[in-house]
């Protein structure tokens, strides 16, 4: 029987306002190489879930296990080397693209030849031009920064990759190519990938499984092939309208 790579056991996360939960009683298991789409209306807790998995937030209740080891027993730096988050708005912190791509590998004491090999490989895979290497953050578009942030995570070779709206600033062609590259990574290297994405057609194209969140609760945990995508689209539209009415 295959052992779960990642397991959440009745995990809750308090919201910053009142006694509400950003996430409530979330339980699921994930296995190596899965491609998980996290979907739901605005405010459902999608980004909060990614932050929990990267330990930017700590559970209010429940526990998270990586390969049967309690998250709380794993040093944060060590955990983030294995479970890497790419946020929707990523910063280069004043570095050039080249320096940003090299930084995490230098910290791991990789040889210069290995560093260059990894960077060259992922630049080629993601169609990142060599001319970008000397550019800084202000010289890149939002979409270009997204690709660099993803490349910076991929060169580290994490076991689990967490992506928050990675295609939001990419055109259709670049988004499709990125998902193809990530799919091949999951299949060939058994890298597990979580992806928050509002574009259901891209989520459907990419994922092996869907976690559907609504108001901080896990409403559905289903394999791609077992999911009624038409019904899911209708439910999401209804939930977004309801959320907008409550907000107004």
Description:
By secondary structure, the chain is α/β, with parallel strands linked by helices. Helix content is 39%, strand content 24%. The chain is built from 8 helices and 10 strands. The strands form 2 sheets. A 6-stranded mixed beta sheet has the order 6-7-8-3-9-10, with helices on both faces. A 4-stranded antiparallel beta sheet has the order 2-1-4-5, covered by helices on one side. Strand 1 and strand 2 (21-30) form a beta hairpin. It is globular and about 50 Å long.
List keywords for this structure.
four-stranded antiparallel β-sheet; 8 helices; 248 residues
The largest sheet has its strands arranged as: 6-7-8-3-9-10
- Proportion of residues in helical segments: 25-40%
| Computed structural class | alpha/beta
Let me know the number of strands.
10
Strand content: 15-25%
Which radius of gyration do the C-alpha atoms yield?
A: 18 Å
Low-confidence stretches: none
In N-to-C order, the SSE pattern is EEEHEEHEHHHEHEHEEH
The biggest sheet, with number of strands, parallel, antiparallel or mixed sense and barrel status, is: 6 strands, mixed
Number of DSSP helical runs: 8
Compute the average pLDDT: 93
Large-scale geometry: globular
Task: Report the span from N to C terminus.
Answer: 49 Å
């Amino acid at each position: 029987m295959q052992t779960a790579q990642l397991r959440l056991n009745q995990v809750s996360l308090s919201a910053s306002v009142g006694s509400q939960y950003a996430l409530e009683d979330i339980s699921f298991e994930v296995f190596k190489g899965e491609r998980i789409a996290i979907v739901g209306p605005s405010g459902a807790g999608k980004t909060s879930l990614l932050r929990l998995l990267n330990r930017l937030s700590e559970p209010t209740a429940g526990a998270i296990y990586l390969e049967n080891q309690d998250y709380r027993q794993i040093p944060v730096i060590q955990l983030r080397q294995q479970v890497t988050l790419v946020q929707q708005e990523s910063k280069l912190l004043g570095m050039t693209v080249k320096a940003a791509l090299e930084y995490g590998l230098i910290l791991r004491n990789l040889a210069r030849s290995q560093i260059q090999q990894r960077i060259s490989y992922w630049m080629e895979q993601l169609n990142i031009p060599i001319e970008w290497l000397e550019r800084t953050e202000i010289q890149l578009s939002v979409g270009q920064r997204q690709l660099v942030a993803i490349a910076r995570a991929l060169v580290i070779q994490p076991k689990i990759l967490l992506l928050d709206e990675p295609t939001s600033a990419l055109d259709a062609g670049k988004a499709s190519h990125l998902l193809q590259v990530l799919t091949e990574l999951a299949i060939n290297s058994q890298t597990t990938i979580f992806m928050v994405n509002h574009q259901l057609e891209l989520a459907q194209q990419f994922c092996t499984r869907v976690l559907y969140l609504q108001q901080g609760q896990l409403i559905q945990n289903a394999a791609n092939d077992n999911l009624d995508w038409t019904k899911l689209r209708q439910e999401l539209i209804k939930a977004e309208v309801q959320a907008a009415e409550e907000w107004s």
